[in-house]
Amino acid sequence: MQLFAKFQSFKAFVQRVVKLAMPYFQSDQKWQARSLLLAIVLLNLATVYMAVQFNDWNGVFYDALQNKDEPVFWKQLTRFTYLAFGSIVIVVYKFYLTQVLEMRWRQWMTTYYLQRWLSNQTFYKLELTRFTTLAGVDQNSINTDNPDQRISEDVNQFTTQTISLCMGLLNSVVTLVSFVGILWGLSGAFSFVLGGISYTIPGYMLWAAVAYCLVGSVLTHYIGKSQISLNFFQQKYEADFRHHMVRVREYSESIALDKGESVEKTQLDTRFTTVISNYLALIKAQKNLIWFTSFFGQAAIIFPFLVAAPRFFSGAIQLGQLMQISSAFGQVQNSLSWFVDSYSGLASWRATTDRLTSFDESMAKSEALMATQTVSSVDSNSLSTTDLTLSRPNGKVLLANAALTARVGDAILLNGPSGSGKSTLFRAFAGIWPFSKGQIHMPANAMFIPQRPYFPNGSLRDALAYPEPAAKYDDAALQTALTDALLPQLANRLDDKEAWGQMLSGGEQQRLAIARVLLKKPQWIFADEATSALDVEAENTLYKRLIAGVLLAKGAIISIAHRPSVAAFHNTTLTLEKAIATDASNASTAATYSVAAIHRS
After folding, report:
1. Omega prior to 434 cis, within 30 of 0
2. pTM
3. For residue range 125-149, what is the model confidence (pLDDT) as tens digits?
4. Phi, psi at residue 194, to the nearest 5°?
5. How does pLDDT run across 537-575, given as a tens digit for each residue?
6. Strand partners, 382
7. Residue 285 in contact with residue 227, Cβ under 8 Å?
8. Residue 554 CB: number of other CB atoms within 10 A?
9. Are strands 189-194 and 197-202 parallel, antiparallel or unpaired?
10. Domains plus CATH for the chain?
11. Are the C-beta atoms of residues 351 and 225 closer than 8 Å to each other?
């Protein structure tokens, strides 16, 4: 039963590997990929063929030495020159074409995973579900840490290790097939008497090689199997350590203001200690395996001579045959020892493959699980919702049966307690909140100003035009937008390249986000605490310009804000209020909110 379970586990793993590997060889680059793979396979077969030729050369050459046959000696040296040159050419091109295939496969897989990760907000939804409990879903089945590491490093390791191990296995199988017959023929029969009965074992050297490697493979697995999990967690811990350092760099100002260096140092030390502890365990596991494989490899050198020595000293075989037997035994033993020699690589490959397949499965489950439940349609004249219900990831209702309407010329302020779902409602309007039901009619030409605007590192013009290409706007339009957003000091720095999200203050970042809106002139604006870091005077100026812009474009503005000063720029207030819960289980854990409208002149 246990053996059957292991077989099923191995079968499932192979299926996952095939699922990872096959798309490239079935893609639009399939003929190029298959041609490279075929060339590498043929070169590996040529390597085995050259090994057979060298084995034959061993017999003739050493017999010539033993017989002091000078003409044959010089002839075989010439033959060796040809064989050596051919082997060099094969080795060089096998290396080159293998590297080309690895590079192109990695390029394709990286592009493929980036496209999936960045499509349909999968990157956002993976993070959304990472630290939350989803209703009716096994959290372990969708958790994915450090997708950046999986795309950048795991893909690279997967392509490299897969080709290396597969070609190594192919080489071993073909070598085994090629040399089994040679070793069988050279071995002769081994006869012995046991209990008064005479026994004869034909091709005994072959059976000795099989027994030797079978024992070695079993022992290798039991000695080295812990490396699979250790390699898996080593990659995870390294990525966690690196990710936390990136966060320290991104939030350097906040950490410095809070004097949080000691806390961050402690957290980084803790993560690095985990890295080192796991790495030490991995080193110890590798040390134990190297102890065994080193003894195994060294014993394999002398083993064929020990077994074949009686026949040599009896005169049954000559020196050339003895060297051929040693060479053939070595080839068969190396082929059968592929598992032993490759175990550390297999352990690392298994860990990499598990991380990549889990990432692939997480994205697939996220795409299926996060399929937007809201039925949305585009209405360029107004915003409306029908029976809109928003839930938390755990299934608890946050906003129930919301019926909202906003028309051209409206300026609506959305307020309510923190955690009541205001920003979540905006996410639903944007189509990125998957836990929603009902219907939303959205105007086509709309822009959102989030609480934490994003600016790509690079030139200021790229940050201002994001996500559109900066070339779409001339310098005059860009400079006007900056000036109107109260950032005249940046108007002449369009080509400066900076990390704008870190260099600018919170207020400047909000003004730059508003400059982006003033540049693009949308009809509808959804502003989520867009001026919370500004002084009242700047807030008044910018809100007047935003409202003037949407009125000119025949649109509307909807704002989330807690500051009373913002209310003056809106003619309608929508308040999220606690509703009486009809579901006892929901009421016991979190409040449900509904919308109440208060109209202002």
Report:
1. no
2. 0.70
3. 777 766 554 444 444 444 566 787 7
4. -140, 120
5. 999 999 999 999 998 888 999 999 888 888 889 988 888
6. 407
7. yes
8. 13
9. antiparallel
10. 12-369 (1.20.1560.10), 375-599 (3.40.50.300)
11. no
